[in-house]
């Protein structure tokens, strides 16, 4: 099961900089059986929580989040980088390792009181997921859980997200950076 999925994740050394072992999920997504298994496992976690919406973080979170939403019969909402959405947006600025960034979603797309699941492909340091959860909470959403295909526990992101009060689960775990 997960051993098979882990075998489908390509590791690219020294990307985007020396010393980083980039975990590339696109090879898993390109494998029909692997992709279905991953979505089935994530949907099995999400379904009992009965969220109102599934929210995916740009960009690979869109792929996983939309597939999970379809599998559990819920709507999907994208959280995008600044300036990518055409309507009136709400956003949050957050700090990255080497600067700042901004996440946005359409105003009103996540109604006050919505129960949501947040989805992305990978959690490393957790900064983007924490910012997305904060943005959703500022809209009055209840973030039930954050789901990831991959966790890099050595970087502490899952622990940081859970310290912010957001339960988190991942299907695969890889050591290192």
UniProtKB/TrEMBL annotation:
User: What InterPro entries has UniProt attached to this entry?
Assistant: Ade_phspho_trans (IPR005764), PRTase-like (IPR029057), PRTase_dom (IPR000836), UPRTase/APRTase (IPR050054)
Does the keyword Transport belong to this entry? no
**Broad EC category:** transferase
List its EC numbers: 2.4.2.7
* Domain spans labelled Phosphoribosyltransferase: 39-142
- Keyword annotations for this protein? Cytoplasm, Glycosyltransferase, Purine salvage, Transferase
Pathway it works in: Purine metabolism; AMP biosynthesis via salvage pathway; AMP from adenine: step 1/1
**Catalytically driven reaction(s):** AMP + diphosphate = 5-phospho-alpha-D-ribose 1-diphosphate + adenine
**Entry keyword annotation includes Transferase:** yes
Indicate where this protein is primarily found.
Answer: cytoplasm
Q: Which GO terms describe its molecular function?
A: adenine phosphoribosyltransferase activity
Q: Name one Pfam family in it.
A: Pribosyltran
Places the protein is found: Cytoplasm
Q: What is the purpose of this protein?
A: Catalyzes a salvage reaction resulting in the formation of AMP, that is energically less costly than de novo synthesis.
HAMAP family from the xrefs?
Aden_phosphoribosyltr
Q: Which NCBIfam families match?
A: apt, PRK02304.1-3, PRK02304.1-5
Subunit structure, per the record?
Homodimer.
Q: Can you tell me which family this protein belongs to?
A: Belongs to the purine/pyrimidine phosphoribosyltransferase family.
**How is this protein named in the record?**
Adenine phosphoribosyltransferase
Q: What is the lineage of its organism?
A: Bacteria, Pseudomonadati, Pseudomonadota, Alphaproteobacteria, Sphingomonadales
């Amino acid at each position: 099961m997960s051993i098979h999925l882990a075998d489908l994740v390509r590791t690219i050394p020294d990307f985007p900089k020396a010393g980083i072992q980039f975990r590339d999920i696109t090879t898993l997504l390109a494998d029909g059986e692997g992709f279905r298994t991953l979505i089935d496992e994530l949907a099995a976690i999400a379904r009992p929580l009965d969220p109102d919406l599934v929210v995916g973080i740009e960009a690979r979170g869109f792929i996983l989040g939309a597939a999970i939403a379809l599998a559990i019969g819920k709507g999907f909402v994208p959280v995008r980088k600044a300036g990518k959405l055409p309507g009136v947006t709400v956003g949050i600025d957050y700090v990255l390792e080497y600067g700042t960034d901004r996440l946005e979603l359409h105003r009103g797309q996540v109604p006050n009181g919505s129960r949501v699941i947040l989805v992305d492909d990978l959690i490393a340091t957790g900064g983007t997921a924490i910012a997305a959860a904060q943005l959703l909470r500022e809209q009055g959403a209840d973030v039930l859980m954050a789901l990831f295909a991959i966790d890099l526990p050595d970087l502490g992101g899952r622990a940081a997200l859970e310290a912010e009060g957001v339960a988190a689960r991942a299907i695969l775990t890889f050591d290192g950076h």
